Amino acid sequence: MKVLVSHPGASLYGSDRMLLESLIGMVEAGLDAVLTVPEDGPLVEQAKRHGVPVVLCPAPVLRKSALSPRGFAALARETAVGVVRGWGTLRRLRPDVVYVSTLTTPTWTLLARVAGAPVVGHVHEAESGPPRWVQRLITAPLLTCSSLLVNSTYALDVLARSWPGLRNRSTVVLNGVAGPPAADPPPPRPARPVRLLYVGRLSERKGVLVALAALEELLSTGVDVRLDLVGDVFAEHAEFARHLHDRVGRPELRDHVAIHGFAADVWDHLSTCDVLLVPSVLPEPFGNSAVEGVLAARPVIASRTGGLPEAVGHFTSTRLVAPGDPVDLAAAIRTVISSLPEVAADAQRDAARAAALYAPRRYRDDVVAHVLATVRSPGLPSARALVARGWSVLGRRDVEELT
Questions:
Q1: pLDDT per residue over 242-275, tens digit each?
Q2: How far, in Å, CA of 152 to CA of 155, rounded?
Q3: Cβ-Cβ contacts under 8 Å for 22 (sequence gap 6 or more)
């Protein structure tokens, strides 16, 4: 069975790592998987390492930059090129099923259905902030998917607000997160300075600035702390990168913050930290980095938003704080530091629980089983039936709302 797998990028962050786990599961199950991405990057190298051929094919990727006139023009050009090249790739490979990772590359979903191939959509997003008509427009291509995978109950709830009918065709498969080779026990007493760690994209929505503000709050009250930032900034966010480096360069922070850049292997950083911070300002659909902290037997302080409570809120060593509130974050850090021996013991027990709950093997098996079931399911609708279904789901009032 040939599976064409599409993904919008080639980095190795949350959804990229889950895509790699999906590919590994397909290879292990004997499926003939081919990955297509619009650009080269570390994900390409990892896919080839596991025996997955890669096709570099342009595809439009939905990003906020498309909201500007220049960004929209660029998206239009990418769409034209992506449709032509994507159709050629589909006609050449003739896959039995197309697995579309994330909802940011809708052309692959639509092209595959026009070509007559069943589509498995895997949703890793949960954008609840945009106006409802924008959410519906972005998620409308999912109406043509044969079936859907969603990485958390929270993400499914957000999706169902746009199109309630998608809930019945969606299956929640929690992410599979590999742990460290060996979880080093946390120190019984924090080092001096106390080592705080942030891992992930460096962006405002991820709460990096909130972490810096909390650090300033702690330093101003005499708490000896240091913050390590592991990650990089999106290329199109150059202005934020300048602001971040200016902020870190202030005299009060200069000797207490280090930016390490992207790291494919985060375990060395986790093994030397005392507390992992996941201070997201906007809702996260799941929270891989938070789970990695639990797997490394480190206390995690995460925002009480999106899928983060679902992912790690049930662990004893985890603390949840108000998103965007540096004072609340600083207070939680103080609390963890003051009771580190007890929290460290809880973290050891939590690591074992997390390893079972988020086992990559469970995730791979669930994804592959879903792909196989989608291909074998009878009576997949034709393109004409899909258009009719979409029109009936929209209805006259919804069409007026979208226009």
A1: 899 899 889 989 899 999 988 878 999 999 999 9
A2: 5
A3: 5, 99, 101, 122, 364, 367
HEC letters along the chain: CEEEEECCCCCCCHHHHHHHHHHHHHHHCCCEEEEEECCCCHHHHHHHHCCCCEEECCCCCCCHHHHCHHHHHHHHHHHHHHHHHHHHHHHHHCCCEEEEECCCCHHHHHHHHHCCCCEEEEECCCCCCCCHHHHHHHHHHHHHCCEEEECCHHHHHHHHHHCHHHHHHEEECCCCCCCCCCCCCCCCCCCCCEEEEEECCCCCCCCHHHHHHHHHHHHHCCCCEEEEEECCCCCCCHHHHHHHHHHHCCCCCCCCEEECCCCCCCHHHHHCCCEEEECCCCCCCCCHHHHHHHHCCCCEEEECCCCHHHHHCCCCCEEEECCCCHHHHHHHHHHHHHCHHHHHHHHHHHHHHHHHHCCHHHHHHHHHHHHHHHHHCCCCCCHHHHHHHHHHHHHHHHHHHHC
Distance from CA of residue 74 to its chain's centroid?
24
C-alpha span between 162 and 103 (Å, rounded): 13
Strand order, beta sheet including 318-321: 257-259, 225-230, 194-199, 275-278, 300-303, 318-321
For residue 248, give the nearest of 239, 258, 238 by alpha carbon: 258
pLDDT digit string, tens, across residues 206-241: 999 999 999 999 999 999 999 999 998 876 677 888
208: which 2 tokens?
């990096």
Phi, psi of 264 (to 5 degrees): -65, -30
Distances from the Cα of 41 to the Cα of 132, 265, 290, angstroms: 34, 16, 24
C-alpha of 108 from chain center: 19
Task: Using the structure block, give the residue that is written with the tokens 């005499």.
Answer: 222
Q: Is the peptide bond before 193 cis (omega within 30 degrees of 0)?
A: yes
Q: Sort residue 394 into left (φ over 0), alpha (ψ -120 to 50) or beta.
A: alpha
- pTM, two decimals, is 0.83
Q: Which domains does the chain have, with CATH numbers?
A: 2-176+360-402 (3.40.50.2000), 194-357 (3.40.50.2000)
CB 125 within 8 A of CB 285: yes
Cα separation, 224 vs 238, whole angstroms: 31
Structure tokens at 28: 């292990």
